[in-house]
Amino acid sequence: MLKSSQRSLLAVLAHPDHETFGCGGTLAKYAASGVDVALICATRGEVGEISSSALATSSNLGRVREEELRAACDILGVRELYLLGYRDSGMVGTPDNDHPEALCRASQGEVAGRIVEIIRKVRPQVVVTFDQTGGYGHPDHIAIHHATHDAFRVAGSESSSSQMSLDGPKPHQPSKLYYMTFPRSMFREFQKAIVSEGIDSDLAKMDVETMGTPDEEVTTVIDVSEFAEVKEKAALCHRTQIQGEGVFDWLPSSLRQRFLSTEYLVRDYPPPKGGNDVEMDLFGAVGTFGA
Ligand SMILES: [Zn+2]
Description:
The chain is an alpha/beta fold. It has a single domain, classed as 3-Layer(aba) Sandwich (Rossmann fold). The protein is 34% helix and 15% strand. The protein contains 9 helices and 7 strands; from the N terminus they run E-H-H-E-H-E-H-E-H-H-E-H-E-H-H-E. The structure holds zinc ion. Zinc ion binds next to loops.
């Protein structure tokens, strides 16, 4: 296949495990169909939860989670992984927000510039990142949303190349920008299950009516049922983030099945036309939009 017709997808995310829990089925599905799948992960998730002290300590969690991420990428078929090397900022209001290397302290322009450079190198038609809520308000998720949104707007423009070396990759405008999300109804069910199972999670205390996307605003639904097992296998790589033996095996089985077999996105660009049409392919109409 000619390089110019090669399809390519870039996911831009904040912590190890987003690539699996957020869009693992989608990445695996497109990788299996021959799409070049690349991933940017901005941090190593240094201040995430630790499911068992036998797996990691707070001082080596970043290194352990990088290994978990690399193993999951292999399973999903992610061909290129770019770590931006910022530090996990932790939840809002925690002391980790003030760490000098925390992602939330880096300027949006700096983070966007680094994403632009990778967009120009990878040259994807499709970019996937968080929505503006960051799923559930984590400052790193929101920072990556804004930086990626900015990067998408300028990656194709010559004028933003001024600080880049002349040998650097040429401008490239991806055709489509998507935000991975969960329909709000799913967050409601998820929180209900967390509370009834007595799972210790920040999600239990959050206002679910601010989380995810109102169901009617979801534009894109990807059937990943053929990749449910792959997604589960990748999820199992993230042992430090999993409570118990299996992947969400405490969830009601219908919700667990839905989580593993269906993924949801909102298309930011080109903007949806409205109406109730839901698309089922990220690469539909690629090439007819943008540059
Ligand atoms: Zn996260």
